[in-house]
Amino acid sequence: MDAVIISVGMELVTGLTVDTNAAWLSSELAAVGVQAQRHVTIGDHGSALAEEVRRAAAENSWIVVTGGLGPTTDDISRQAVAEALGVELRVDPDALRQIRLFFETHGYRWSESNARQAAVPEGADLIPNKWGTAPGIHARIGQSEVFCLPGVPREMKAMFQAAVLPQIAPSQVGPVLMCRSLRCFGAGESTIGEQIADLMKPGGEVVVGTTAQEGMISIRLVARARTPALACGLLDARSAVIKDRLGGLVFGEEDVSLEAVVGRLLLGRASTVTTAESCTGGLLAKRLTDVPGSSGYFQRGFVTYANEAKVGVLGVEAQIIQDHGAVSAEAAAAMASGARRSAGAGYALSATGVAGPGGGSESKPVGLVYIALASSDGCEARDCRFGQHLPRAEIRDRACSVALDMLRRKLLEV
Question: Contact at 8 Å (CB) between 279 and 369?
Fold first, then answer.
């Protein structure tokens, strides 16, 4: 069976907000055998939404609308669904009590405009929202089921899994489509593509493709089979082949981050890491501590932006900076060794470079970053030339990714 996913909000059509809901819903629906035929994005125009709902109902079995269920006048999904049904809105007393209770429980100030969220088209049902204020709506138009959910991703996902998916999944008897993503770092998209080129040929039972974003390469796998178990089996087999070929380039699956992988490895070794940062300005420490439980392996870091700080805080010899400069392999190695010694950590990562947009020279251009890793085995430093074309934020972020990957490979002895 097919579905149409409709995303509502002027912030989406103007580009102020990226619509991640539609992609997530497509994946969830495909896993139970429902193929999304199209994604539609509509601004805050009730008549346009009503017309799109009627059109989708004439073509598809399932319609999922996200957004437009809030308390303000530009939240038009309720009225649009009522218009598509040809009925009026009514206020559901139970829903109104639940919304008021949510405000009281969380200490929020009540405004009468919030009562709009308890309105439901005649003949439709409300979908409970335990994660926010706006209930969802479930209505039937002809042979199609219409589900309206909040646009807030956290609420939408929880409500879809709790109330919508249980109604859709049991009715499906066709093949399912399941997806998986392998995360890679350390080589370009073309290099990775060459190593798995034969697996990317069209027509196979598992479709394989690659995407690149900010230095990370994702390999997406899509399998179609009669049941979820069979599709998972196909994905497992193909993933194993890819991991075997690419080796240490694959660091995880789905949305796992390098810092999360590094954290698990450090915890497994009962070891710790510290950071010594110049051009990254604390971003490396931030990424490490973005991971819940990072206090188990990260206790402190050092941001030594000025040369005086490198010397006074980390114990970098002034002669090293005088002879080689602050942006050098020698300075990076001394920073990492000094940080490891000062923090008493098992490992230390350092970064010093020219993040731009100014400050570069012919010998040390913008985009040049030296990264070092110190451990009980000694200190390794490498130079990375990210290119003068990249913006400052991306140079800093890529430097942190390289540093984290160096530690990951060290912990794995890759």
Answer: yes
